[in-house]
Specification:
The protein is an alpha/beta fold. The chain has 2 domains: 2-164 and 318-358, 3-Layer(aba) Sandwich (Rossmann fold); 167-296, Rossmann fold, CATH 3.40.50.2300. Helices cover 40% and strands 14% of the residues. A 6-stranded parallel β-sheet has the order 2-1-3-4-5-11, with helices on both faces. It has a 4-stranded parallel β-sheet with strand order 7-6-8-9, with helices on both faces. A two-stranded antiparallel ribbon has the order 10-12. The radius of gyration is 21 Å and the shape is elongated.
């Protein structure tokens, strides 16, 4: 089913990667403008970028560019901080940039990383199709590119992809709703509304597709009913994963379909920022029994909502695990080898299959969040007060 979903979403052209020393969560945005790097500096760093990776010291050394989309979402701050900490501990210099969800800013930042001597780029793109031109510069200088969490589309400069299993994220959300409504045994019908993420984030389609592969049969049979009628990806997508946009859309859905006390049984939300918007809307406008609400990332605000009974679950993607894997990948590349991967079939970016490393997500809810989030040291008790 996963292959079917991927083939429906992505192009199927197969092109061999030509980068030197190459081998492999989409959610993508911007930081402070970084276009001021003098053009005169472009040539000297290129020599560093083109130096054989095998010459890097065995104990580490070299410069790694890390481009994150935005500081507006908690998870990107954690991803960037975890990666910087681990890369520096491994002996690498790190140029970490956030792009404030502005594509041109991210392009300028990556350009500066290329021209300042970065030997590997780790990029969480804002918009998957926006980086082709700047990544041609990386390709010309033999700088390997690791797409981080969000697949960079339509560029043969992408060497690897590191992420969580994004299709599995969606299936776990769908299965949670299925199991907690007991859809295989209960009579129904049950009302559900759907909210996913940014249409420019390739991961959003995997999240939504995985969940809908679980839920669609129940919608088709009439056991699940989407009273708003909004079931297509384009109709339920949320630009920039915005809490405010998700809340405004849910306000309209509640007003049109649930203001008379009609029961809403479940809300599929692909991540925590959209789940927060849905929960805020329901708190202000909905008078029925509280529905199941899914999420992803275990953001502090959503974990607090989970504890308070306002969000049912959130997919936990331990960014420490992903950061550690990316450090392994960078280290292998810097030493002239191939990065470790565990998937060579699923992710076609339009130029061919990108070798990928997929970490497995788990879900947290009221029953296990202490074990997953506090006992593991991801949060403290005080963080969730």
């Amino acid at each position: 089913m996963k292959k079917k979903l991927v083939s429906m979403i992505l192009a199927t052209a197969m092109v061999a990667a030509t980068l030197v020393g190459c081998g492999n969560n989409g959610s993508s945005q911007t930081t402070a403008p970084a276009a001021e790097a003098p053009a005169a500096d472009a040539e000297a760093p290129a020599a560093d970028a083109e130096a054989p990776a095998a010459e890097a010291p065995a104990a580490g050394g070299g410069k790694v560019g890390v481009a994150m989309p935005t500081k507006d979402l908690q998870r990107w701050n954690q991803d960037g901080a975890n990666m910087q900490k681990e890369l520096e501990a491994a002996g690498y210099e790190v140029d970490l940039q956030y792009a404030s969800n502005d594509i041109q800013t991210q392009v300028s930042q990556i350009e500066n990383m290329i021209n300042s001597g970065c030997q590997v780029l780790v990029i969480a793109s804002i918009e998957g199709d926006s980086l082709g031109t700047v990544l041609e510069q990386a390709k010309e200088k033999n700088i390997p590119v690791i797409a981080y969490d969000r697949l960079i589309m339509n560029s043969d400069a992408v060497s690897y992809y590191a992420t969580f299993d994004n299709y599995m994220v969606g299936t776990k959300q769908g299965e949670y709703i299925r199991d907690h409504l007991d859809l295989d045994n209960a009579d129904g019908p049950f009302n559900i509304e759907l909210t996913t993420g940014d249409p420019g984030d390739n991961n959003a389609r995997f999240f939504f597709g995985g969940a809908m592969d679980v839920l669609q049969p129940y919608i088709d049979s009439g056991k699940l009913v989407v009273k708003s009628g909004q079931t297509e990806f384009e109709a339920v997508a949320t630009a920039n994963w915005s809490t405010e946009t998700a809340q405004a859309r849910m306000d309209s859905i509640v007003s049109a379909n649930y203001a008379d006390g009609t029961q809403l049984h479940a809300c599929l939300c692909s991540n925590d920022s959209t789940a927060l918007g849905v929960a805020n809307s329901l708190e202000a406008n909905y008078t029925g029994e509280w529905p199941i609400i899914t999420g992803q990332d275990c953001d502090i605000a959503s974990v607090k909502n989970m504890i308070a009974g306002k969000q049912s679950m959130s997919i936990f993607k331990d960014t420490r695990t992903l950061a550690s894997k990316v450090v392994e990948m960078v280290d292998a590349i810097m030493k002239g080898g191939d990065a470790p991967v565990n998937d060579t079939k699923s992710y076609d970016n339009g130029t061919g299959i990108i070798p990928s490393y997929l970490c497995e997500p788990v879900f947290a809810d009221i029953n296990n969040y202490k074990e997953l989030l506090i006992d593991s040291g991801y949060y403290t008790e005080a963080d969730l007060q």
